Amino acid sequence: MTKKYDFLIIGAGPAGMTAAIYASRAGLKTAMIESGAPGGKLLKTNEISNWPGITSEPGSQLAMDMFQHSTSFGAVYEYGKVVEIKADSLDPTSEKQVLCEDGTIFQAPAVLVATGTRERLMNIPGEAQNIGRGISYCAVCDGAFFRDQEVAVIGGGNAALEEAVYLTNFASKVSILM
To answer: Which CATH architecture has domain 2-113?
Structure first.
């Protein structure tokens, strides 16, 4: 089955949903292709308190609000796991094809890849269940939740050191574990 759109967005996290708002408001027939529920990392975040206009809200609620907004101008949510994007590198104005695992093919003159990131889990007991409830992957996002507490940063590279230094603004003690 082939479905045609003016604009395709691979990913329905905050960036993909924001793009869908702008594209559909501009009158483009727009689709977001997502292999999971819309919301991205918001769905794994227990509390959002750094979003302008919202003092505190569960990530899942903000994801639902964003999804409703992103489809309010006509953007369509399409479930699918993208396995390939085909484009003519010699003709950037040609139709792009986005192929999904189930055989569905999407076509559009423009494709935006907004797939976000995925953290590398360490597979320690309780890790997956406690993401957003004590385990965090972003000091800037969540550091203030750990004010006056002892925290540990796991990692040995520059990113871990930068996160640890930032956390010293909030935590009573910061340890780096390698």
So the answer is: 3-Layer(bba) Sandwich (3.50)
